[in-house]
Amino acid sequence: MIGEVLNRDFVLAQMKAILQELKQRASRRRGGSAATGDHDVPVDMDDYDQAAKKMETALRDETANTSGPTGFDPQSRRRGGTPSVSLDETCFISSDPIVSITQSALQEYFDDPQSPDHVGEPSERSQRRGEESNPAVTDRYLSTGRTLPSRRVLDKFSITDPGWVSSLVAMGISKFRKPHPFNPAPAPTHTMADQCRLVIVGDWGSGLPRAQKVGREMRKFVEQSLTAGTECHVLHLGDVYYSGFDYEYRKRFLPYWPVNPGEEDRIGSWSLNGNHDMYSGGHAYFGTLLADVRFAKQAKSSFFRLANSNWQFIGLDTAYDDNGLKDPQAVWLADTLAKNPQRAILLTHHQFFSAYENSPSVGETLRDKLGPLLTERRIFGAIWGHEHRCVLHAPHGNLEYARLVGNGGVPVYMTHGESDAYEAPAIFEDRRYMGGGLEHWAYMGFAVIDLDGGALKAKYVDEDGLVCHEETVAPGIA
């Protein structure tokens, strides 16, 4: 990811320029393939018009209120009284589909070797710019300095080929408007050994240097399993940034996935659908990620089941319908649990509840659709992502075991002190932060679950390989 594309002011300035280009193209009613130099971006007849309308609405809304991450703003008292630096300036990950599509288009444009504004890889620039070896966010910038230029410079920056970018935006918005068909058939149940390992990461698909570190640490646990001959599965809880373009899976996800090509018969790979995966209609999630041979066990379905004699881990798609549960998953789950008595842990992208997002809409559809299963205690627990934190919860909402593992690849600030009280129902959060700088960057990480008969042992591991917390859940259940 390029630093300027992670800056909200820069993105807003480019959205204004892109909107004007979209309006001009819509007024000319261009159809077919839009000419973009050596690149042809497939755009339907009315795509520019529809894209211009959606861009205008998104630009108005974004100008009024940020769609970036909330709840992570640094507190001045923890920063020695210095002015706060917003994540909007350093790591703007939008929750608005159109803004995210704009970021995807800008990034793809700047990364393309044929782009007149092409930005090389860090290795091409690091010597003359003195890049740090482990940047908190990114090591790639358009500007010549190591930090973002001023607001005035950002506003004045002009894309050399706005037609190319606007065509990419129009294509992305067209895919968002016309999503990939939902696969109503679950993947065939995979039967696990009673002793096996699950490596779980959420919101990992940024491709940032620290996300790559997370992938390398995950790989160490995979290799332990290979050496010991223990069955192992690696699971992603969803979100490839910014909006699930094919380019983003090929550039940011697949090259760093901790299962190597050729290992698919020995190591399982599974991935949930996330809201960012659906911002370009889920086309690349279903057509690129799930088509990779390493994910063959998933059978191009966004919901699945892994089970042994004592446990069943069931992945659900809560993103095809954003923060929902696309049919027939609820009926399938009820039928599955009626036939299988093992303790059930659901894997979802969206949360059932949150200690930090105080809104009745959080998990509402999940709780409504799965209500009887929850009240009858047919579901033992759930593991989810979406929030970019690592949080353990006390039993709550008819879930005995509820874990948030969404800290895999998006840089955020740690705004709580280690001695601060937890907001119920949270009981543990990895509240350490990196280094001694003014910005208290939270550690990224993942979870490792080892099943041994009826015992579930979990480790929470950070990007440096440190196990920051361990727990044993439901030991000795036969």
Give a structural overview.
The N and C termini lie far apart (47 Å). The longest helix is centred in the N-terminal third of the chain and has 21 residues, at 8-28. Mean pLDDT is 90; it is low at 30-38, 76-83 and 124-131. Helices cover 31% and strands 17% of the residues. The protein has helices at residues 8-28, 47-64, 87-90, 97-111, 122-129, 151-156, 162-177, 209-228, 246-253, 275-278, 283-289, 329-339, 364-369, 371-375; strands at 33-36, 39-42, 190-191, 195-201, 231-236, 267-271, 304-307, 311-315, 343-348, 381-384, 390-393, 401-405, 426-429, 445-452, 455-462, 467-473. It has 2 domains: 3-177, no CATH class; 190-473, Metallo-dependent phosphatases (Purple Acid Phosphatase, chain A, domain 2, 4-Layer Sandwich), CATH 3.60.21. It is built from 14 helices and 16 strands. The strands form 3 sheets. Strands 3-7-8-9-10-12-11-13 form an 8-stranded mixed sheet, with no helix packed on it. A 6-stranded mixed sheet has the order 6-5-4-14-15-16, with helices on one face. With 478 residues, it is of the alpha/beta class. Helix 2 packs across helix 7. The relative contact order is 0.12.
